[in-house]
Structure formats: C-alpha cells, structure tokens
UniProtKB/TrEMBL annotation:
It comes from the Eukaryota. Residues 68-95 form a coiled coil. It comes from Artemisia annua (Sweet wormwood). InterPro entries: Remorin_C. Pfam families: Remorin_C. This is Remorin family protein.
Length: 145
C-alpha cells in the first residue's frame, strides 16, 4: 500500500484560513451581540423588579402611616373623653365635699345654739332656785351624781 499525499496550494489554504477567521470573527460578534442583549434584558428586568418593590414598600408605608394616624386620633379622642369624665368626677367630689362642709357647719351651729339654749335654761333655773331658796331635785350625772 502506498500513501499518496496531495498538496493543496498555499493560496487555497490562505483563502480558507481567512474565510475561517472571518466566520469565527462573525460568530464572535454574534455571540457578543446576544450576550449584550441578554445583559440589557437582565438589567431591565431587575429595574422592573426594583421599581415594583419600591412601589409596594411605599404603599405599605402609606398604609402604616394611615393606620397610625387613625390610632393616634382614637387615642386622643379617648384621652379627651377621659379628661372630661375626670373633670366631671372632680367637680362632683368637690360638690360633695362642699355639701359635707355645709352640713357640718349647720350641725356645729345647731350644737352651739343648743348649748346656748341649755346654758340660758340653766341660768334661768339657777336664778329661780336662788330666788326661791330651793335645791334642784335632779342631780346631774357628770357632777358625780
């Protein structure tokens, strides 16, 4: 068996090589173009996701602020109601204290009046006993009777 080597002319090899290089370069450019497109798409999608998340976070913050404002308004309303009731009860207590003081003054006045009346009676009876020279029939318990 004999081996036959066929030689290709050098110009054909150069042509084939430059055509191959061109094809490789075009394939490389196409690959870079696809990668660039994919990267742009990825960044767009990430940007969309970021914007959506920001919108949702803003909505949550707005909802939270609204709820807090409602609660604070309710708390203020309850506090005002409490303060009003507190003032009403304080007024009632002051009125009761004033009424008790008035009743105590009336009772004191009655005791003082009764004491004056009893003293006057005692003086009148003592004067009568002196005038008649008689001794009282009753003994007073507080004087050792």
């Amino acid at each position: 068996m004999a081996l036959v080597v066929k030689e290709t002319p050098v110009t054909e090899v150069k042509k084939a090589k430059s055509s191959l290089d061109r094809d490789i370069a075009l394939a490389e450019v196409e690959k870079e173009k696809k990668l660039s497109f994919i990267k742009a798409w990825e960044e767009t999608e990430k940007s969309k996701a970021e914007n959506k998340a920001q919108k949702e976070l803003s909505a949550i913050t707005a909802w939270e602020n609204t709820k807090k404002a409602q609660i604070e308004a309710k708390l203020k309303q309850i506090k005002e109601k409490y303060d009003k009731k507190k003032a009403e009860y304080a007024e009632k207590i002051k009125n009761k204290a004033g009424l008790i003081h008035k009743q105590a003054e009336e009772k004191r006045a009655m005791v003082v009046a009764k004491k004056s009346e009893d003293n006057l009676k005692a003086e009148e009876l003592a004067a009568k006993y002196r005038a008649t020279g008689t001794v009282p029939k009753k003994r007073i318990a507080c004087f050792g009777g």
